[in-house]
Amino acid sequence: xxxxxxxxxxxxxxxxxxxxxxxxxxxxxxxxxxxxxxxxxxxxxxxxxxxxxxxxxxxxxxxxxxxxxxxxxxxxxxxxxxxxxxxxxxxxxxxxxxxxxxxxxxxxxxxxxxxxxxxxxxxxxxxxxxxxxxxxxxxxxxxxxxxxxxxxxxxxxxxxxxxxxxxxxxxxxxxxxxxxxxxxxxxxxxxxxxxxxxxxxxxxxxxxxxxxxxxxxxxxxxxxxxxxxxxxxxxxxxxxxxxxxxxxxxxxxxxxxxxxxxxxxxxxxxxxxxxxxxxxxxxxxxxxxxxxxxxxxxxxxxxxxxxxxxxxxxxxxxxxxxxxxxxxxxxxxxxxxxxxxxxxxxxxxxxxxxxxxxxxxxxxxxxxxxxxxxxxxxxxxxxxxxxxxxxxxxxxxxxxxxxxxxxxxxxxxxxxxxxxxxxxxxxxxxxxxxxxxxxxxxxxxxxxxxxxxxxxxxxxxxxxxxxxxxxxxxxxxxxxxxxxxxxxxxxxxxxxxxxxxxxxxxxxxxxxxxxxxxxxxxxxxxxxxxxxxxxxxxxxxxxxxxxxxxxxxxxxxxxxxxxxxxxxxxxxxxxxxxxxxxxxxxxxxxxxxxxxxxxxxxxxxxxxxxxxxxxxxxxxxxxxxxxxxxxxxxxxxxxxxxxxxxxxxxxxxxxxxxxxxxxxxxxxxxxxxxxxxxxxxxxxxxxxxxxxxx
Length: 694
What we know:
The chain is 52% helix and 10% strand. The protein has 26 helices and 14 strands. The strands form 3 sheets. Strands 6-8-9-10-7-11 form a 6-stranded mixed beta sheet. Helix 2 (11-39) runs antiparallel to helix 6 (130-159) and helix 18 (497-507) packs across helix 21 (568-595). The protein is elongated.
């Protein structure tokens, strides 16, 4: 009811009307002050004189009129304009300057004034009651303050959005969006493909909220919170949306940045407010996305003696999650990709009891994610989803969604009725390498040099046992690259030194081909050299794969406050080992190319002519690859296991005979049990058995 009412109100027009009211009131106040100052002589000059001076002024004809106030025993003599300087002197006298005189009895005064009127020395005199003066004074003194209070009230009401949750008065209110049971988010666990482990842990939280007795009867307690940790795009927020769609309890959704405000203390106030609302609607879930915005570790960014707003917000969050007070029925679900920056007090058990890792999907999970994102697409039914999953290693769920969308755009660009396999491959190439630049101008010599370079990659990787299988080679410029060799990466549980050296050798194949067959080297191998150097340093400094520095791992420099955890002499040894390793693989690549010189030349010529060649073209020139890929070995092992299981399994006839024999033995034992008397006291009746079940 309240939601519909708020949605139907024209908020902005009403807010603008408030400011119009404020403007009108301020204008009235200014008009009142100007009119009151004009009407009551606040801008006119007045002087006090004695009664004798007053008599002299009247006799000389200086007075224009006289006002008598009997209650105050005073009178005001207004001076004629031509005699004002004689009475008041020089200066700004105002519109109606007057002389104020204290009087005693009014009897003689009335006689004197009547005579002056008859002699035409004054135009007349009048009496002024004190009641009207009192009312005027009240209006002058009280009404401005009343108007100022009204203006302040309307101003604050306008700044607070008319009490609708915005502005200065509601700045400490939480910005959490509430999803009630009836409000469908539209996403369930069926829409979350892959991440079975993370999904199972989150489903347990949902099940606890739905069936708490199932766990509390065994003495279990509801978890205080769960933290979703993983790289960007892996589906952390999607899991939270699925929880909101499945839980059937109130769900508060907000971001870590919603606690941040320019005012001091606002973040802590919003934390307290969202937990207050959550306790009122318990059991419920609070989801904080990108919690590292407020949960960053304390003391790593000191406030230089001042007040750190982030620390105050974090302290309030820690207290609300697990402080002195109770917080039963409220589960905090948070997500971040910077878990290393979070405060240890926030990560401890009792606050975030579970840390759910949402990692990049593996091969099977990528296939399941592809099937989810292929639902709305009109694609060719012969599409090999397994090949697409193998072609996208290291892709997150968001990347796979982008691949499917990009493939649909490419198919629409070519006026196709359905998305084909080639469109998906082009989409992967587009995302990984960038857009093709077919219009880029190159000379024939540059093009041939690039072809020799890319053919060198293909040839070396073809004859390295642990290199990834080749898919295609192209010399069409794409993104920042002038050419590329596409491989089918094989996901390994562990990586050996030989495998890493084979990959390094294939990276250096392009530079080695330039050196051998072009006679000069170019800048085209910069990316290859960068990757090879990083790999070599990783093998030596972290993996302990060096001959002179074996079995030693030097940690990240950030853990040592920007100081190297090794001496300068060790650094020199490390540099020499890296140089030795890279040069060794470079010489190895040269040797492979020299042994297959003819095949490499034919491959480079074909690439120069066609610009794009595939695995079958390489196989026709260099022959079948002498090594089996890891995927082929796994398939062969699985086939052997299936055959072994089939051979060890008993035949159907033997199984049927065994079943018949077991059935006969069971029937014989059952017949014997019928003939044996049984004490009814030892066997519960059917009624008692049903009661026990209940």
